[in-house]
From TrEMBL, chains A, B:
InterPro entries: ACT-like_dom_sf, ACT_dom, Asp/hSer_DH_NAD-bd, HDH, HDH_cat, HDH_CS, NAD(P)-bd_dom_sf. Signal peptide: none annotated. One of its GO terms (biological process) is threonine biosynthetic process. Belongs to the homoserine dehydrogenase family. This is Homoserine dehydrogenase. NADPH binds at K103. It comes from Petrotoga mexicana DSM 14811. Its EC number is 1.1.1.3. The active site is at K203 (proton donor). PROSITE patterns: ACT, HOMOSER_DHGENASE. Keywords: Amino-acid biosynthesis, Methionine biosynthesis, NADP, Oxidoreductase, Threonine biosynthesis.
């Protein structure tokens, strides 16, 4: 019998408890071993809960779990940083294996936690931390074990994907789409963590650390949110054959560096990623042997995450039962450094407001040409006022050259405003 | 050290050999154990091979592998039924674990092989048998272990998906698309096995046997190929908002029976399955906890399949090293029976050729109405001859009632021909 301690009994924790109790027989048959929840840490023992939890299991003292020598596996579903980080470290120091869905802690303290786990000869499982029920960690660790991973693309945040989908399908503004997401419970009342792209940055740092075997410092990832996207950008993207998504990108760069970024991105409509709508998440991975694999599913929510956590519990239980040492342990061998966005080559979409006078476009074209930026297409919408919006799509160019071209544009009297600049992903790399 | 015997060194076998030798260090680091290919069965030792294979490993005598007491794992990549089935059974009787990508043998003799493996206390791994590099078996067995699987939808055959994609995108006929597929090596010179839907039937029987824990007899699956699909069907599907795909379906039916089928299917364009084009494969699974998961990748080809086989070899090696008994063994507990298509409710698309005279549509509508079939939409294309094509879409109706309606139609003098009947999948089940 494997004895388990649960930290937290909220939405995901309650879901995990519910699955482990209602599907007990089925799980034991598949595993060949009983899993027993011995104790559950809660804030308040007498609080009303969604699921009927055996009250005798509840405790308000984390030490009753972490210091119990019978408990071999601690499942952390409290979330947040404090006091969770302390609990996890203390549990590892007491030689407990860990299952967690805590992206914050893994992204910020992953290096420390995995080292501590190694020192204490225990393992840390984290399928639920990225992409909810999408089996992305297992796919990277096991199914793609024969592959060198070249790149990862992810739509990893359901809130922003819902907002962008609404803006695209219903032709509404960002603010209205955000309000709709909030009213449906898809966005928090303070949406900053999602809308700013930070949530995605945590997740791509976890995936990249695993896939490229190099710990990625989440603070050094370039992050841009979706709050500057306007309805006009989305309409023009459609017209040009693209869909705007908040894309998380992790790529090897010439085999010596890594290119990790999160930003709104023009995705060609021919790419299946452009069709992943609403609160769904998706990850597309390129391996040198298998080519492209894409996995899609519900990226968050109580039950999808609980499904991933239970799979981790089963994996951990198997590992404990059979004394498996080397859980395809990811070597963290390479100290691959991040490359700055300045060096990266992308096509760019640019939206300008200019004075509607003859010769203005020639000036813009010259500012680009002087900085080696070549224009792929231009859309000019005629309006009934002296100001005309211009939409440009460039050919691929290094970002630092693009920045110089933008600086030159800003010096032109007839360029009133540079409204938006969005990167275009062409998905045409050779591995 | 785990010693492995390879049966076959063709496209996939050569790919596996190549990965295991070129990535030897990486694989050993991840597994924590050396994997050694001890011997390789080939037809002809002196044949020229794509990869540089160590000639001292080659043998033309299968007994040198199957009877070698040092070899713990036999990797079968010969394909076909004879002599492969005999080799696999003999290897299991000699207590070898098996990795295979042989869908034919698993679908036809799976029950016997898994029983034999159980009796001999060895395991059979088969990720490469369905969907090439798509990690669908591991996802079903491990990642979705907390789930009761409600339904599986698969586009599981790259040849037919390529042909249908070409017909859709290029507006060409079946015969021309087939020729193009053959010229590119995506279709065999005798395309029967793919085009008839049989290949898909083997694959969905393997997936369903695993997901529903009931061995499915592949011969009792309803199978319909794509050779009757004409350009006109595809054009009308587009007009109605659908894409035609060869869909493999596995569903629980009222929790007591299973509904397993392979046939051309109208898929709404809003469903991501409709966007999976070309030689790509996709599987969409619904679990009661996690909701929908979709996995997509290259469904065939030397390297994607080799990637899956190497992942299985690693899994098997881990299992051997740590004496893992219960590989989440799938119980095969339920003896769920298949339900006949007559009982299944679908919407239907029907293409007719009728005499272009007043009142003909009223007669058709009556023939449907008399059999409880209600019409959802009608498209009538005007042509410059006395015959007019009519395209109908029905509301959902039991197939046996639909058949009666079709019989009534056939009795009408003005119905010249029933050109095609295609099922529509609405994807609106409640679990």
């Amino acid at each position: 019998m494997i004895k388990v301690g649960l930290l937290g009994c909220g939405t995901v924790g309650g879901g995990v408890y519910n699955i482990l109790t209602t599907k007990k027989e089925d799980i034991e048959r598949k595993l060949g071993e009983e899993i027993q929840i011995k104790r559950i840490l809660v804030n308040e023992k007498n609080k009303k809960r969604k699921y009927d939890v055996d009250a005798s299991l509840l405790t308000e003292n984390y030490k009753e779990i972490i210091e119990d020598p019978e408990i071999q596996l601690v499942v952390e579903l409290i979330g947040g940083e404090t006091p969770t980080l302390g609990y996890i470290k203390e549990a590892i120091n007491h030689h407990k294996n860990i299952v967690t869905a805590n992206k914050l802690i893994l992204a910020k303290y992953g290096r420390e936690i995995f080292q501590l786990a190694k020192n204490n000869n225990v393992k840390v499982y984290y399928e639920g931390s990225v992409g909810g029920g999408i089996p992305i960690i297992k796919t990277l660790k096991e199914s793609m074990i024969a592959n060198k991973i070249g790149r990862i693309y992810g739509i990893l945040n359901g809130t922003t994907n819902y907002i962008l989908t609404q803006m695209t399908e219903k032709s509404i503004d960002f603010e209205d789409a955000l309000k709709k997401a909030q009213s449906l419970g898809y966005a928090e009342s303070d949406p900053y963590f999602d809308v700013s792209g930070l949530d995605c940055a945590y997740k791509i740092s976890i995936l990249s650390s695993l896939a490229f075997e190099s710990f990625i410092d989440v603070n050094s990832i370039y992050v841009e949110g979706i709050d500057k996207i306007e309805r006009e950008d989305i309409e023009i993207a459609e017209e040009l054959g693209y869909t705007i998504k908040l894309l998380a990108i992790g790529k090897r760069y010439e085999d010596k560096m890594l290119d990790i970024r999160v930003h709104p991105t023009f995705i060609p409509k021919s790419n299946p990623l452009s069709k992943i709508n609403g609160v769904y998440n998706v990850v597309q991975i390129h391996g040198d042997v298998v080519g492209d694999i894409m996995i899609y599913g519900q990226g968050a929510g109580e039950m999808p995450t609980a499904s991933a956590v239970v799979a981790d519990i089963m994996e951990a239980a198997k590992s404990i039962k059979y004394h498996i040492e080397n859980e395809y342990s990811i070597g963290r061998l390479n100290g691959l450094k991040l490359i700055g966005t300045d060096e990266i080559e992308n096509s760019f979409y640019i939206r300008l407001r200019v004075n509607d006078i003859p010769g203005v476009f020639a000036k813009i074209a010259k500012a680009f040409g002087d900085n080696e930026v070549s224009i792929a297409s231009v859309i000019q919408k005629h309006r009934l006022n002296p100001v005309v919006p211009i939409f440009l799509l460039t050919h691929p160019i290094e970002e630092k050259k693009m920045k110089k071209a933008i600086d030159s544009l800003k010096e032109l009297d007839d360029v009133i405003e540079i409204k938006n600049i969005i990167r275009v992903e062409d998905f045409n790399e050779k591995f």
